[in-house]
Fold this protein.
Amino acid sequence: MSVMKNGTQKISVPRTAKQLRATIVAVKARLKDRYAEQSSSVSFLIILGLFSALIIQEEANISSFAGSFFMSLAVYFIFFKDIKRYKPSYINDRKMVYLLGLLLVSTLFAGRLFDYLNAGLGRGLHFPDGMSTMFGTPLPVGAMLCALIFDFHTALIFSLVISLLTGVAFQNPFLPIYVFIGSLTAAFSVLRCKKRSALIKGGLYVSMVNVVIAGIILLLTSHLFTAIAPAAIFFAAVSGFFVAAIVSIMLPIIEYFFGISTDISLLELLDLGQPLMKNLMISAPGTHHHSIIVGNLTEAAAEAVGANPLLSRVTAYYHDIGKLKMPEYFVENQQGGFSKHEKVAPHMSTMILIAHVKEGVELARQYKLPKSVIDIIQQHHGTRLMHFFYQKARDQSGTVNEGEYRYPGPKPQTRVAALVMMADAVEAAARALTDPTPARISALVERIINEIFLDGQIDECELTLKDISEIKKRFTYVLISIFHKRIEYPEIELKGAHQRSESGAERPSHGNGNSYKEHSKVDKGSPR
């Protein structure tokens, strides 16, 4: 394709029959892939609609089933269109699409199942028959799981879809409002959820809101002062506890089978008693310390650019676990000023450095770390050039292939991966500063991040120039705080202090007899 003088584009036409055939084959393959993708999406929607129709149909006849099917199909079409528009990453991941479909169908099934169970419970407790049992359906389960696994936007649209289909299922105009508000409460209650015990608190919030909304609905329907009211309030209250119990059971199962990491499971990985972190602390203490500092940097920057701070810290902790295989070949673990790379060819040194990424991925899979962490371990060096060994090879051989001295990639695909890459490079370079003044640290951060940017390493993630500016500020602030200067303590003349302690010991004690002990503690604690 070329640009003409008037600014319009001219499409280049294949000049030979061979080129024309290749173009036709490529177009056919593209159309075939698109057709297969669209066919798969339509089939998926039809299957969801069929299962949902079986659940929500009120009467067992063709008319009711067909109406339920087409209603479900219309609502699901809008739902997945919204997800494709605002959260395309979920649509691109088939596993996440299937999980969304499973949550939709299973939530409707749970509502229908608990309606039958509550009806039996009501008869056992001699509650009057009526609309009371519908208040006990734990339909906010789906929205709470969506907020924990996906995000709040997805949970919001999920709540709307479930509330609409629930109105069809129970033939009640007030129930969609009850379900929608309860589901929103469930989603709000687990935002930034860090502990599994927070699910119980979320269930309590759902119970309180459901009781209030149930009371309003009873008031609207003139049932607030009838025999139905106590039963309805009871079921509305216990529905929140059903929600907390089901989510507590289902969340670990979903995390395991779908390989998904939530903030709760990520928080468990921050425990320094985890086997990998223990091994890193013992076998590669320098790398362990480096990872902790990188975690501080990435978490601070993630908060500034709207990334997930918890995921940033976790991936920073585990990004260099591949160094456990040969820790002595990395400068932060070397002692005595001797480097093993001095006796190794530059190309071999490069292979050793590249290997730590592959071995880190293997270790992460062996210890069943989440996929999001494994991906960032693989991406945290991107395709960066190993300048030291590249220059060393050029000095020895003259001309070398630059590609052999680059990491294999891939480049960072997410903002968190880019943050780990930049923090890793900045922290390592800051360690080499002889006099880490604020001005030097700021200039270093500026230079390192600009090099990464100009090298095209963050072209495939969603960082903006404004984000990069904020990252530089946060990195500079944290590093200045770490490498701040300490005041020099005056040296204490030990001889004089010893004489004073002896004279203090000869004096009679007027208190509890601890005068000598206090002097000894001062001597022992004094900096030397």
The CA atoms of residues 414 and 461 lie 5 Å apart. Residues 17-56 form the longest helix (40 residues). The chain has a mean pLDDT of 85. The radius of gyration is 32 Å.
